[in-house]
Amino acid sequence: MKNYIILIPLILISFTSCDNDDNDQPVIPTIQAPETYSFERNGESTVSYSGQTTRLEQADELYAALNSSESTASGLDLMFNGSEGSSAGFANDLLNGTSKIIGSKTASSTLAGSATTKERFNQYITDFASNVAPNWNMDAAPGMPGSITSPDGASTYQINAVGQELDQLFFKGLIGAFTLDQIVNNYIHPNQLDSGTRIDDNDSGVLSDGKPYTDMEHKWDEGFGYLYGQEGDLDDVGATVGSAPAGSGNLLMKYFKKVNAEGGYEPGIGQTVYDAFIMGRTAIVNRDYDLREAQADIIQIELSKVIGYYAIHYLNDYISKVEAGNIAKAHHSLSEAYGFILSLQFTNNGNDEPYMSKADVESFLDTSLADFHNVNQNDIIANGSGMIDVIKAAYGNTLMID
Fold it and tell me: DSSP per residue over 66-121, as a string?
């Protein structure tokens, strides 16, 4: 059963006084957003994104499992795809037996979803369990999986037969296919926010069954949760969530906060995104859907930059490691670059278009980066036509990166 309430919009009304009543100016409403992502109705918080926090915590366990020689294909598949519509396979039993399943939200948006891209992740799991884990301590060679160590002996990486470090492919790809896609192409998009009767329900104050929020409010919160779901209690961290995001985990927040940090690629991006999330949620409360869409555009563009920055970063890092003769770290960096390039197809330029199409992404992955032992460096650094310049051009040269 849906409950009906009367919403009191969060607005300030200003009046312009005049000497002549005939020249009265119209009342101009001004929407005032709170300083933090905090919204209440009748004294009760209306913010809820616990499901997103659950999935992000599941991802942490999955990441650890993809770094263990003891992991099996069936165990990894359970953690990623669940069993009979329920999450399973996690050491933390609180993460089991829920409807929250990472795989069901991977490459699944109506804008950018792809069964073939989702299948890539399943194949990474199979390759890891069948080839990498059994050869964990073997010396790797072209065509043979195993381990590879940096010249100083400080770093060792496990790679597959074509030199790819699969946990990096998987998780850097998941940054785009899972967290970014769910935010920019799903939960803050009209396809989700305006589905069914959600506009009419939000306008009329119809609450989700037994909840203090409308469906539209909740969907926006879920998008927020895929970025900030491991930030901790927002009431405790307060306004620093914007200026200095510090959430844990291995997905989008990990690199978002690096881009924002002092010395990062774009300090200030954290506040821009946080403010847009707050204002978009405020716009929903005030039923201003044009303002909501303007904030969604900001979030889509800014979060998509994170993918571009780090695809280029790791391609450059690969080249520098090769030139330094550190082949182990070169394979590691190229694996990270591969995952971020895979993620490019899930970006959104504010006009519901990715900065790089699925076809172009797959061309890079399946040709230039198909075998890490035989990469043509010119495919990466060629002036104007190499991957680095192509990615920069795809972003309209708006990325603050050399």
Answer: TT-TT--HHHHHHHHH-BTTB----SSGGGSSSS--TGGGSS--TTT--HHHHHHH
Cβ–Cβ under 8 Å, residues 320 and 367: no
Which residue, among 329, 279, 321, 317, has the nearest Cα to 299 in the 3D structure?
279
Answer for the pair 326, 153: CB distance below 8 angstroms, yes or no: no
Q: In 3D, which of 117, 319, 286 has the Cα closest to residue 217?
A: 286
Contact residues for 401 (Cβ-Cβ < 8 A; gap 6+):
265, 309, 312, 313, 392
From 178, 213, 7, select the one nearest 187 (Cα to Cα).
178
3-state secondary structure of 138: coil
Dist. CA 366–CA 165, nearest whole Å: 16
C-alpha 138/C-alpha 161 separation (Å) is 12
pTM of the model: 0.92
| Token representation of residue 283 | 């716009």
Beta carbons of 398 and 347 less than 8 angstroms apart = no
Dihedral sign, Cα of residue 134, residue 136, residue 138, residue 142:
positive
Question: What span, in angstroms and rounded, lies between the C-alpha atoms of 287 and 199?
Answer: 8
Q: By the 8 A CB rule, do 248 and 257 touch?
A: no
Q: How is residue 141 written in tokens?
A: 């060679």
How far is residue 38's CA from residue 22's CA, in Å, rounded to a whole number? 42
pLDDT in tens, 136-179: 999 999 999 999 999 999 999 999 999 999 999 999 999 999 99
Place of tokens 């037994």: 210
Secondary structure (3-state) at 213: coil
Helix residue spans in 288-326 (DSSP H): 289-323
Q: How far is CA 6 from CA 9, 188, 214, 278, 285, in A?
A: 9, 24, 12, 22, 11
Q: Give the tens place of pLDDT for each residue, 43-75.
A: 999 999 999 999 999 999 999 999 999 999 999
Residue 182 makes CB contacts below 8 A (sequence gap 6+) with: 105, 108, 109, 222, 223, 226
Phi, psi for residue 277 in degrees, rounded to 5: -60, -45
End-to-end CA distance of the chain: 56
